[in-house]
Design goal:
The chain is α+β, with helices and mostly antiparallel strands. The chain has helices at 21-28, 77-86, 110-119, 132-140; strands at residues 5-7, 9-13, 32-37, 48-53, 56-62, 101-105, 123-127, 151-153. The longest helix has 10 residues, at 77-86. The two termini are 22 Å apart. 29% of the residues are buried.
């Protein structure tokens, strides 16, 4: 294996926690600019997310003041999504055990998100991949990455990574 890629690790959610589509979009507008798009949204920069809801794609752009840029964990896209949407709006506090959320590795593509929403989920979030620099920053501060932060392709055989000092 000569090269390992870190890919996006997207989220699909079963319901809107009792909200209508309109109520949900209104609630997330507190922290995000919400733009409806004509095609699939694959975020190209940090602090942006794609949202697929009711057969429409939206680009969500978070306001800078909503997270601490100096905290390597809080500034991760997975942390921003958890803190601003998953937990307070959708009521998903423990992503490891909540049956209302599932994860789709970036290798499966955005079409898989649309498929899951058409089959058994209500909405999907497409995410920017976590960068190697972000991972190193978290490790250098002796912190732990949040669960479901990264998707590696191809999968490492050993499961270990070594950071040279």
């Amino acid at each position: 294996m000569s090269k390992v890629n870190i890919m996006d690790y997207n989220r699909v959610v079963k319901d809107l926690n009792g909200l209508t589509d309109k109520q949900f979009l209104k609630k997330i507008e507190k922290y995000f600019t919400v733009e409806e798009k004509e095609k699939q949204v694959r975020p190209q920069e940090k602090a942006t997310f794609g949202l697929f809801l009711s057969n429409k794609w939206y680009l969500l752009t978070v306001e800078d003041k909503t997270f601490d840029k100096n905290d390597p964990v809080a500034s991760l896209d997975v942390s921003i999504l958890q803190k601003l949407i998953l937990e307070p709006v959708l009521g998903i506090e423990d992503i490891r055990n909540d049956k209302r959320i599932d994860f789709v590795g970036g290798v499966r593509g955005l079409g898989e998100l649309e498929k899951r929403v058409s089959e058994d989920m209500k909405l999907a979030f497409s995410m920017c991949p976590t960068s190697i620099e972000e991972m190193i920053s978290v490790a250098d501060r002796d912190k732990t990455m949040p669960p479901k932060s990264t998707w590696f392709e191809p999968k490492p055989l050993s499961g270990l990574f070594i950071h040279e000092f």
